[in-house]
Specification:
Helices cover about 50% and strands about 15% of the residues. The protein has about 80 residues and is an alpha+beta fold. The protein has a two-stranded antiparallel ribbon with strand order 1-2.
C-alpha cells in the first residue's frame, strides 16, 4: 500500500546535503580564504535552488535598480525570466 509523501523528511534531506557540501570545503580550506568559501557556499545554494525551482525562474547575482537608487550586490538573486 503506498504511503503519503513525507515532505518534512524530503526537505530535511536537502538541508543535510547543503550542510554536508558546505562543510566539505570548510574542512579543506579551514576558513583561510573567506571570499572563496563564501563564493562556494553561494554556488552550492544556487545549484540546489535550480534543481528545485521551475524553469521559468532565473537564479543569478546582480543589483536592483530603482529610479534614484541602486542596491548593493545581491549574491543570490531570484527572478522571473
Amino acid at each position: 500500500m503506498p504511503r503519503d509523501p513525507d515532505f518534512k523528511k524530503y526537505h530535511e534531506s536537502i538541508a543535510k546535503e547543503l550542510f554536508t557540501t558546505k562543510d566539505r570545503l570548510t574542512q579543506l580550506l579551514s576558513n583561510r580564504h573567506p571570499l572563496s568559501t563564501g563564493g562556494w557556499k553561494e554556488s552550492i545554494l544556487k545549484k540546489t535552488l535550480r534543481m528545485h525551482m521551475p524553469e521559468s525562474m532565473l537564479i543569478g547575482t546582480g543589483f536592483i535598480c530603482a529610479e534614484h537608487d541602486v542596491s548593493t550586490q545581491i549574491d543570490i538573486l531570484v527572478c522571473d525570466k
